[in-house]
Write a structure and sequence with these properties.
The protein has 106 residues and is mainly α. The chain has one domain: Four Helix Bundle (Hemerythrin (Met), subunit A), CATH 1.20.120.910. The longest helix is centred in the middle third of the chain and has 33 residues. The chain is elongated and about 55 Å long.
């Protein structure tokens, strides 16, 4: 099962890395010489802020995935850090960076 989890984490790392590249392109500064109207410029600035938050979240996810990948061989991998019970395999496959079970998340 570790091999399946390892593959899943690698897939997530690859897709998250691509997403980060996309968000970095979308968060480049908006040149003032662009011939867009005032409202369109405000929309572009607002969209840039939304994309900056998405970039930050993707970078956090990538970091968590890399930590999970480095700890996959640890005996504590897949154990909830709060209740110390096994995290269901479905959750680990869906969110490999998860360190808590669903019950302890909320």
């Amino acid at each position: 099962m570790n091999k399946e989890i390892k593959n899943r984490i690698q897939e997530e790392i690859e897709s998250t890395t691509k997403l980060i590249e996309k968000y970095r392109d979308l968060t480049k500064p908006i040149a003032p010489e662009n011939a867009i109207g005032r409202v369109s410029r405000m929309d572009a600035i607002n969209n840039k802020s939304v994309n900056e938050l998405a970039l930050k979240n993707a970078e956090i996810k990538l970091n968590n995935l890399q930590v999970a990948f480095s700890k996959i061989e640890d005996p504590d991998f897949g154990i909830c850090v709060r209740c110390h019970k096994p995290i269901p395999m479905g959750r680990i496959l869906l969110m490999p960076q998860a360190i808590t079970c669903v019950k302890c998340t909320y």
